[in-house]
Specification:
Layout: E1 2-3, E2 11-17, E3 22-30, H1 34-52, H2 64-75, E4 85-93, E5 98-104, E6 110-113, E7 116-119, E8 138-141, E9 147-151, H3 153-156, H4 167-176, H5 184-198, E10 208-214
Antiparallel strand pairs: 1-10, 2-3, 3-4, 4-5, 5-8, 6-7, 6-9, 9-10
Helix pairs in contact: 1-2
Length: about 220
Amino acid sequence: MTAPARIVSGDLYDFFPFCDNVVGFLCADVSGKGMSAALMMAHLQAVAHGRMLGLEQTSARPSPSAFATILNRDLCGRFGGNRYATMFYGEYDSSTRSLRYINAGHCPPILISAGEVTVLRDGDLPIGSFSEMTYRELRLTLSKGCAIAVYSDGLIDALNSKGEEFGEERLVSCCMQLPKKVSAESICTSLSQRISEWSVGAEQFDDTTILVLAVN
């Protein structure tokens, strides 16, 4: 789910159905707000689709790290010297329950597994920052019943009527209180409701996106 702070959003989430057992998923946050951020986001999405979809052979598809490197080189300087995008991109294979992913300066994803919550902090710089940047591919094996929550910083930066941020600590606490083996939709709904309750009486100043992968 996504909730724009303006009429248009600089946040992006997308899915890439590669085959019966592999799906790619992307969550990105373009710097800035409003129309300029939305235009950069649209360009990012178009390039991502061009690189990942419509390829007849699986071997022709770039790895997550190569994909991030391609997007980085395309974005560098295209929208001005100070424009960039944070991005999480992952590929999940249900046959092996393996997740391959990169984190380009994005908020650390949260792994929810067997009543435990782990913040996955490894990652690299945002795309569009340095043209020669390369990205590390990270890997996880996901057990049955666990979930990965990916989100933009509008979630943890959300303010209440006192000007207090929701913050990562509260987000982790919310995830710890979730029932076991809950669906991806339920996780999104629960977190969205908590943010809405927190922000009552305060203006939303940043785009907010939540993307969840649940392993059944």
